[in-house]
Write a structure and sequence with these properties.
CATH class of the largest domain: Alpha Beta
Number of domains: 2
Largest sheet: 5 strands, parallel
Distance between the termini: 44 Å
CATH superfamily of the largest domain: Response regulator
Strand order of the largest sheet: 2-1-3-4-6
Shape: elongated
Order of helices and strands: EHEHEHEEEHEHHHH
Radius of gyration: 19 Å
Structural class: alpha/beta
Length: 206
Amino acid sequence: MAVSVLLVEDDNLVRAALAAGLAHHGYEVTAVGDARAAMSSFVDAPPEVAVLDLHLGAGPTGLDLAVGMRERAPGVGLVLLTSFTDPRLLRTSLDTLPAGMLYLVKQSVDDLALLATAIDSAPASAQSPATSAPRSPLTAAQADTLRLLAAGLSNSEIARVRVVTEATVEKTIARTAQALGIPYEEGVNQRVALARAYFRLIGRTT
């Protein structure tokens, strides 16, 4: 019998391509584009494996969905398929994966067979201990500051959001640049370089 897979991906083209590819590999695929549709489908017909994007727009993330799904069905296999190399770059609280959840970075998946292998092994991993999510070389404070900087916030605005002083923000930015190997150079806008590094880390180019 075909393994049932719930695919949650908000990009229409990516969702259609993945659904077609997985169906071609012999899986029974239900594909949806947002968190509400995902939970509705999960409740109506619990799949054996859920393949979840991390960033689903405003509202719950793929990890939020995974926690809810695991509470309802402890044996469901979970695969996170995302462009974020570090989920803390979306939200600093996203630091721990549900037990046995497999984490795949889209940029490294150059063959659908790799995703198929993860799907096949996900149910057996469901009872494994919870693990930390993959991390960039940044601390949580640095990841949060980098995300806000890339969103265009000034140092004073970042300080207000993070409830710290501007001096702390300046030090954090300097340490973030050092951690990412971005040296201070004459004629180079360090904030622009940091923003570009952020977009690379989340799988986007500028």
